[in-house]
Amino acid sequence: MRRRLSNVRGPRVVVAVTALVTAMAAGCSSGNGGAGSTPSSTAGRPSAQPSPAPSPTQAAWAEDACLDVSMPKPDVQPVAVIDCSQVTAGVRITRLVERGQGAGKCPRDADGWLDTPAGQDPRTACLRNSRAPHPGDPGKGGGILRVGDCTLIGDDNVVQERECYDAHGPGKIRSFTKTKKGCENRAWSYAYKREGSYTCVGPGAPATKIGPQHELGSCLTAPKTKKRKGIFGGTVTAIVGGLKDVPCASKKAWGKVVGAISAEFECKRPADYSVTTSSGIGGLPLGPDPYPDVTCVRRL
What's the distance, CA 10 to chain centroid? Predict the structure, then answer.
């Protein structure tokens, strides 16, 4: 790994009881009802068992109905329609679309979508949480993929949405373009083909480690450096072996971490150096680097 160093810029209960029903036909006669008739008895004949009450029919999934789940992932199964006034009413159905078309036809503010269960009209229900958080909002990691969301893009180049770390990424979507060239004309932009078009994203999309590489306020030893030819010409100062933490009280402390930013920016004062971590060519962050990948260092 090489680094580039640059100077700054109620329920109903049914009880089933088996009763012995005794029907005494007292005073009954065989035909004339006169004296001397012999009573007939049905004692010992079991009564019929009461039938169990049928289970209630599942309420229909319809627009403005509420479900007992929350997005982005249902936490109960099976999902049921309940009264929206109940505390467990986690989402409201905002629209019903063709089955399997949630990503393309749900409203932009949808926090997620679910297919209707068996026995219902086969549709896909677009859902919005009844209360925050709303993963469908830009940058929150769920819902419809749109400008302002952040991405994770692996070796297979599949675009996956994830929550943004900061205002700039990782892999923040800048636009959707019909051609790859439309994205590449923008500085620090990368194009990924998705569903017949291109998703134009900023730095950090391949990053699997999210967060500063060094804690704010931590101190570093003096790095070993080497002059290298830059990809756009000229020379760059590359750090060999990486930055190493050291107690700030140590005599070896050379610099202090004052920030961490996306590679598309230069550190500002009070930083004296912008240190870029990269496994790419010429010190550019082209590999699966951490995000943010620039450490801002002030010389002690």
Answer: 36
188: exposed, middle or buried (Cβ count in 10 Å: 0-12, 13-18, 19+): middle
Q: How many CB atoms lie within 10 A of CB 91?
A: 27
Any bridge partners for residue 253, and if so which? 221
- Give the span between the Cα atoms of 218 and 227, in whole angstroms: 26
Question: What kind and span of H or E run contains 181?
Answer: helix 180-184
Nearest alpha-carbon partner for 296 in 235, 220, 240, 233: 220
70-79 CB burial, b ≥16 within 10 A, e <16:
bbbebeeeeb
What's the rounded Cα separation, in Å, for the pair 113 and 274?
43
User: Would residue 199 be called left, alpha or beta, if left means φ above 0 and alpha means ψ between -120 and 50 degrees?
Assistant: beta
Q: Are 89 and 82 in contact (CB under 8 A)?
A: yes
Nearest to 258 by CA among 213, 219, 296, 223: 296
Candidates 194, 201, 81; CA nearest to 139 is 201
Cβ within 8 Å of residue 132, ≥6 positions away: none
Judge whether 293 and 214 are in contact, CB under 8 Å.
Answer: no
Map residue 282 onto helix, strand or coil.
helix
Phi, psi of 92 (to 5 degrees): -120, 140
Cβ-based neighbours of 17, under 8 Å, separated by 6 or more: none
Q: Which amino acid is at 61?
A: W
Quote the percentage of the chain above a pLDDT of 70: 74
Closest C-alpha among 295, 299, 298, 300 to residue 3: 295
What mean pLDDT do residues 265-287 have? 70
What is the per-residue pLDDT for 220?
Answer: 95
Mean per-residue pLDDT for 61-66? 95
Q: What is the mean pLDDT of residues 66-93?
A: 87
Q: How large is the average pLDDT for residues 221-235?
A: 78
Q: Is the pLDDT of residue 184 over 60?
A: yes
> What is d(CA 281, CA 152) in angstroms, rounded to the nearest whole number?
21
